[in-house]
Amino acid sequence: MFEHIHAAPADPILGLGEAFKSETRSNKINLGIGVYKDAKGNTPIMQAVKEAEGRLFKFETSKNYLAIDGVAEFNARTKALLFGADSEVVSQGRACTVQSLGGTGALRIAAEFIKRQTKARNVWISSPTWPNHNAIFNAVGMTICEYRWYDAERKALDWDNLIADLSRADAGDVVLLHGCCHNPTGIDPTPAQWEALAKMSAQKGWLPLFDFAYQGLANGLEEDALGLRTFAATHQELLVSSSFSKNFGLYNERVGAFTLVAATKEIAATALTQVKAIVRTLYSNPASHGAATVATVLADPELRKSWEDELSEMRNRIKQMRHRFVELLKQYGAEQDFSFIIEQNGMFSFSGLSAEQVDRLKEEFAIYAVRSGRINVAGITEDNIHHLCQSIVKVL
Ligand code: LMR
Fold first, then answer.
1. What are the coiled-coil residue ranges (predicted)?
2. Three-state DSSP class for 201?
3. Ligand 1 atom, smallest distance to 11 CA
């Protein structure tokens, strides 16, 4: 029966990595997948992570199964990071967290939970968005509705159309929001816009789902949680998918979390039993190493400081590269104004390059980016930036 199977198209993001590996030109640059690179072009293991791993190696006494919801300390620390250690949501016991296989795993748990335990059938997703959002909600049979996010002319948030589109979302619809560092545009709402969105959501009775994969990469761990915390202050119920892939550099350890906030502690505890039932059918229980590493770092003041300092360095390097990128594009003769790139948050920049221009970058200059025009600014280094900017100017 397998002879009837059609080949699936290559993944628009991960497929690029595979193509990049077989690229033979020595000046090749991978600006596709969202992975941080340091000034030398390496994706480092953070110092606090290395230290925590050493401790785990030394003191771990058993490889027994974890609980279905994972490492308890990790779950508690995740909640504090999301909502603030002293937040009401946490102190009232209204938030339940389960460890997941990265942010993608958390989104899939969210989708399964919504499908099995709520009446919601529509999920509102920004246009553009991370392509896997569509795939994940399609996989559970939900109807995808889009709200406009990006004004290509102004290279800014398309606020009026966003509000116009979301005003059609009904009570009980799921609205998926990027907590910070919107993927792919890098454009986030202002504090006042978060307030307005939270107010609209509470009034209309949406179920907000935050995809929060980049905490700490826009302006800081606390600052980046502003949107989520604004919603948490005004909603009895919401869902969060969060990830430690980027802010801990733990990409291949698959560490993320699904968090559910309910109106009361009791409702949250009951809902958690259903989340655990979902996990049991998907992968039974998660792997320990990555989550134990994160918990070790977050629980130890010294390691935590080291992690926060290194995360700040990463954030600052990305910001510097944004400035340098804009400066060199101009220097190499770009007539367009690219200064909008400086204002964008996180790893990505929506460059405005067309799919054809991105194809030319790959074919003629060995530069790999997502065909939407998304560029991973965190992959730019002083060594590759000249080739990058000269090549972009040639395809403009
Ligand atoms: C990205 O958008 O590049 C990352 O989130 C990695 C992925 O899984 O697509």
1. 304-331
2. helix
3. 9
The domain limits of the chain are 11-44+314-395, 65-299
E strands present in 185-318: 207-212, 238-243, 255-261
Can you give the pTM of this predicted structure? 0.96
pLDDT digits (tens, 9 = 90+) for 228-253: 999 999 999 999 999 999 999 999 99
172-222 pLDDT, tens digit each: 999 999 999 999 999 999 999 999 999 999 999 999 999 999 999 999 999
DSSP assignment of 90-158 equals HHTT-EEEEEEEHHHHHHHHHHHHHHHHS---EEEEEES--HHHHHHHHHTTPEEEEEE-EETTTTEE-
Catalytic (active site) residue 246: yes
Q: Which of 37, 69, 130, 188 is catalytic?
A: 130
CATH assignment, 11-44+314-395: 3.90.1150.10
CATH 3.40.630.30 fits 65-299, yes or no: no
Higher pLDDT, 352 or 110: 110
ipTM of the complex as predicted: 0.94
Q: Based on the residue annotation, tell me whether 211 is a catalytic residue of this protein.
A: yes
